[in-house]
Amino acid sequence: MSSRFNTPRVLRRTGNALRFLLIVALVLLYLMPLYWMISTSLKLQPEIFRMPPTLIPETLTLENYAAIIAGTMASAIPFLVYFKNSLFVAVFTVLATLALATPAAYAFSRVRFRGKRNLIYFVLVSQMLPVVLILIPLYQTFMRMRLLSTYPGLVLPYLMLTLPFSIWMLKGYFDSIPRELDEAARVDGCTKGQTMLRVILPNVTPGLTATAIVTFIMAWDEFIIALTIMDANRMRTLPVGMIQSFVGQFSMKWGEMMAASVVTTIPVVIIFVFLSKYLIGGLIAGAVKG
């Protein structure tokens, strides 16, 4: 009997059960906004404002999705135009960030030069400046350069946000690669550029993927710079276009906004479903020094 009702064992099982219940509660708490967004997008307008609210739609409808795809929003700009703008800007931001951050991070990791430590910290500190401090001079500069409401005019400011963080991340991945690989490549006659492209980069693919995912999400979700630079409605990105379309002075189109939010989250969900193992592997690799 004493072994059967061992106090430490009972306490351990009780603690495990409480931790499990806490984890389940936190997961449900985290998923509740997502469920409410999907549920609201499938409701008719009268049911959305019904009190008490219904957790499960009484009448499932795709009218909200049809409205945003058909372009019947108040802005008279099809939702797919905003989607295309966001996708174009996010993809080109990822490509430009990787093209610039990869050689910079490799140089910080492998090349010895004076002031390297201070410079890498300066790159990181630049990430801490609030974006609102540069909005006015950024707008004036781009207006003189005629870059307002253009894709390059939005990709360039995004690079200011993504490059410091990407360089810092990739430097950690390059540091985790043994330097013996560089020495072996030089023995075989490779230059530094060939060593980076042919030897080192294939070994940091998870790091590149993780950096690309983070960069894509940063560009996909950004609001304040897109609101400032893209002053033409046809060039709006999704975050700005949704506010312009669904939020009015006296009303909000909750059903269409939730449908647009569901469609907006689809690319991010797809990226995490298919690339989550690379993201996790890249973060772990970047945290370990070789």
Describe the protein:
71% of the residues lie in helices and 0% in strands. It has 290 residues and is mainly α. The radius of gyration is 25 Å and the shape is globular. The N and C termini lie far apart (53 Å).
Tell me the number of helical segments per DSSP (H or I, 4 or more residues long).
13
So, CATH architecture of the largest domain?
A: Orthogonal Bundle
Order of helices and strands: HHHHHHHHHHHHH
Number of domains: 2
* Main sheet overview: none
According to CATH, the fold-level topology of the largest domain is: MetI-like fold
Name of the CATH class of the largest domain: Mainly Alpha
Structural class estimated from helices and strands: mainly alpha
Shape: globular
Structure summary, number of beta strands: 0
The CATH superfamily of the largest domain is known as MetI-like
* Strand coverage percent: under 5%
Radius of gyration: 25 Å
Share of helix, binned: over 70%
Distance between the termini: 53 Å
The residue-averaged pLDDT reads: 82
Give the low-confidence spans: 286-290
Brief summary of the model shown:
The chain has two domains: 7-61; 67-287, MetI-like fold.
Keywords:
290 residues, mainly alpha, MetI-like fold, 2 domains, 71% helix, disordered C terminus
Please outline the helices and strands:
Elements: H1 7-41, H2 45-48, H3 63-70, H4 79-110, H5 116-125, H6 135-144, H7 151-175, H8 180-187, H9 192-200, H10 205-221, H11 224-229, H12 238-246, H13 254-287
Helix pairs in contact: 1-13, 3-13, 4-7, 4-10, 5-7, 7-10, 7-13, 8-9, 10-13, 12-13
